[in-house]
Design goal:
Length: 327
């Protein structure tokens, strides 16, 4: 009787070598427990803010391989915080690419905050077209990635976008030139695409990105004690058991129409978020946050066909159970 041939074993160490060989030719990064890198931070120049970002007052700040966003209403000092962080970054050997989307920043202003404006330390770039910025950053990071993979060491630098809220899409500009006032749904998708594409390359290259963004007041109501996100701006009307009521006028004890019928409000809150204006073909407008959901079909349940405001497209049809509305 013939003996059964024993099977060999393909050990994990061999699998690891294959993955390592592939990673050497691509941007795939493998973390080695024997050579774990310590987290590095760039100080903000403000001890309390260092602690908020990293839990360390003296040695903390924004992480050196992450995207950090500073959001708030106009005039609260977002650019001031960026200047402080840029100054501290230069102290740590970073150069700065500062992208001014508002065309409102001057080199002399930055110098007054202690930033070295020499071209070897700072490049001030002006653009408000999200597509142009996407091309610039993807090509820049792509070229740097190739250089790093070839064995070259990349100088430390940081990218600042001030602000994301002022970035416009080409369609938005063309619509304005043509006198169209329809809501532009391409901008949100272009913004998401931009940050989705650059995020991994920033991490691979260890390039920190600092982004500011405007926020606007929205409100939310709680038919039952659960967590939720701000959806509607003050002035929008909500269906209650007593008819349509402005969302800012709702209070504890009122009953609003929900997926489960009329339910009692337990609390109301205010949020600061970027707002979207959705306009229908009949001129009706809804101002809401990107997280506001629209029902696209007839299934009025949580499992129905819902779409976030940021994912709507021109031409989408939203039924309102009386007549269908087109964006």
């Amino acid at each position: 009787m013939a003996k059964k041939k024993s099977k060999g074993k393909f050990e994990f160490s061999k699998i690891g070598k294959i993955v390592s060989g592939i990673s050497d030719k691509t941007g795939i990064q493998i973390e080695d427990s024997d050579n774990m890198e310590k987290k590095e931070f760039i100080g903000t120049g403000i001890y309390a803010l260092n602690a908020l970002f990293s839990k360390s007052i003296l040695n903390g700040g924004i992480q050196n391989n992450r995207i950090t966003a500073i959001a708030g209403p106009t005039g609260v000092g977002k650019s001031f915080l960026c200047y402080n962080i840029c100054r501290e970054a230069q102290k740590d050997g970073y150069s700065i690419i500062y992208i001014d989307t508002e065309f409102s920043i001057e080199l002399s202003d930055m110098e007054s905050y202690g930033i070295d404006i020499d071209s070897s330390k700072l490049q001030l770039v002006r653009t408000n077209a999200v597509e142009d910025l996407k091309i610039m950053l993807t090509q820049l990071l792509g070229e740097l990635k190739e250089n790093k993979l070839s064995g070259l060491e990349i100088d430390k630098f940081m990218i600042v976008i001030d602000s994301a809220g002022q970035l416009a899409s080409r369609k938005e500009v063309e619509d304005a030139k043509a006198g169209k006032e329809k809501a532009d749904m391409t901008r949100a998708k272009a913004m998401k695409s931009l940050f989705r594409i650059v995020n991994s390359d920033l991490g691979f290259l260890k390039v920190p990105m600092l982004v500011t963004n405007h926020t606007y007041l929205t409100m939310d109501l709680f038919p039952r004690p659960v967590m939720s996100g701000g959806c509607l701006e003050a002035g929008n009307k909500v269906v209650t058991d007593k008819g349509l009521v402005n969302i800012e006028d709702l209070k504890y004890g009122d009953y609003v129409d929900t997926l489960n019928g009329f339910e009692k409000i337990y609390d109301t809150f205010e949020f600061e978020k970027e707002r979207y204006e959705v306009e229908f073909e009949d001129g009706t407008k809804i101002i809401c946050s990107d997280e506001h959901k629209f029902l696209m079909g007839k299934d009025w349940t949580e499992s129905g066909d819902w779409k976030l405001a940021s994912d709507l497209n021109e031409g989408d049809i939203i039924p309102n159970f009386i007549e269908e509305k087109t964006i």
